[in-house]
Amino acid sequence: MWQAPDHKRRALLEAARETRQRKKKQEGFRLRKSRAQIRVSSEDGPRIVHARVLLNEITPEGLNLFMGSRLAAGELVQIAIEEPRPIYARIKIVSCLELAGESRVISTEPLGFRVKALFQFPSEEQTREMEAFCEELAAELGLRKPLSKA
Q: What is the CATH number of the domain that holds 84?
């Protein structure tokens, strides 16, 4: 049936590649997300703003998140992320961009702002703890290497 060993080898490699692609399509790439609460201190008193964090986008230096209201660049706020394990930190808002008005995502909480923030750790120990957390998160999410630094 096989004229030459190369044809057989090529067919086996092609079958293995198709199996990998089929498995990849079935599993898909999932972005794990977690809810977060941002505590903003203002002249009127502290207020809580709800946000959503993509766990794939947390690095030892900072994170990206989606919020329902605008925050000013340079503002210092506190963040609490409950999953996969509780994290409490101070962050500095680097940028806050409004997303396009119409979204294909149907949600009870419209989160129309994309925010980039940097962690503000008072000690090296807390910085090392965040690096360890990011490595654990990368392993849990099945990433090949730890999340890159921002």
A: 2.40.10.220
Query: How many domains does the chain contain in total?
Result: 2
- Note if the pTM is more than 0.85: no
Which residues have a Cβ under 8 Å from the Cβ of 57 and sit 6 or more positions away?
Answer: 63, 64
Mean pLDDT, residues 50-73 taken together: 87
69, 49 Cβ separation under 8 angstroms: yes
In the chain, the DSSP E strands lie at 33-40, 47-54, 62-67, 76-81, 87-98, 113-119
Are 46 and 80 in contact, with CB atoms under 8 Å apart? Answer: no
Q: Is 93 inside any structural domain?
A: yes
Q: Which structural domain, as residue segments, surrounds residue 5?
A: 1-28
80 and 133 inside one domain: yes
